TrEMBL record:
The lineage of its organism: Bacteria, Pseudomonadati, Pseudomonadota, Gammaproteobacteria, Pseudomonadales. It comes from the Bacteria. NCBIfam families: sigma70-ECF. This is RNA polymerase sigma-70 factor, ECF subfamily. Residues 124-176 form the RNA polymerase sigma factor 70 region 4 type domain. Gene3D superfamilies: 1.10.1740.10, Winged helix-like DNA-binding domain superfamily/Winged helix DNA-binding domain. One of its GO terms (biological process) is DNA-templated transcription initiation. InterPro entries: RNA_pol_sigma-70-like (IPR039425), RNA_pol_sigma-70_dom (IPR014284), RNA_pol_sigma70_r2 (IPR007627), RNA_pol_sigma70_r4_t2 (IPR013249), RNA_pol_sigma_r2 (IPR013325), RNA_pol_sigma_r3/r4-like (IPR013324), WH-like_DNA-bd_sf (IPR036388). It comes from Phytopseudomonas argentinensis.
């Protein structure tokens, strides 16, 4: 069970100083949840385990790049995992098998019963914040983060200028960050 008082930021900063205990604590805290997410993204346990391993190698190597001022440590490690999983999917020549409409409905799905209380609360909060975003900002954010599409692909798919898509994603993420900090 994860510790709701775990200090991700301090542990990442300690990892940057090559503190193996901090790295082990981070691994114990999040590896089970990260593996679960990787399995859901990749659909295969062995691929998910490889992804998790690669993500933690990157976390260890790049912990010095983490900056508290840019976001939470937990979000930072999950972004590394997500990036690794999307890379694996691209290398396999696959894209995430979600229709645009399904991506829009992800904000309505209830969390899995297996998820811990903290994750359920975080997901509910994120879902609530996503629901508050108007569709022109929400849809590009969902396509980028749930489908792994590039800004260019989103602009093409939505037949919207690239600069507009970038602006909508940027303002949507800013609005989500403000909402999540409340």
């Amino acid at each position: 069970m994860s510790d709701p008082m775990f200090d991700y930021d301090s542990n990442l900063e300690a990892c940057a100083r090559h503190d193996e205990r901090a790295f082990q604590a981070l691994y114990r805290q999040e590896s089970a949840q990260m593996l679960s997410l990787a399995i859901s993204l990749l659909g295969q346990r062995d691929a998910a385990e490889d992804c998790l391993h690669d993500a933690f190698v990157q976390i260890w190597r790049n912990a010095g790049r983490f900056q508290r001022s840019l976001g939470s440590g937990r979000a930072w490690i999950y972004s590394i995992l997500r990036y690794r999983a999307l890379n694996q999917l691209r290398q396999r020549g696959r894209t995430v098998a979600l229709a645009d409409d399904i991506a829009e409905h992800l904000i309505d799905d209830s969390p899995s019963a297996a998820q811990q209380h903290e994750q359920q609360s975080d997901r509910r909060q994120l879902r609530g914040c996503l629901q508050k975003l108007e569709r022109p900002r929400r849809h590009p954010v969902l396509l980028a983060f749930y489908r792994g599409l590039t800004h260019e692909q989103i602009a093409e798919r939505l037949t919207t200028p690239l600069g507009t898509i970038k602006g909508r994603i940027r303002s949507g993420l800013r609005a989500l960050q403000e909402c999540l900090q409340r």
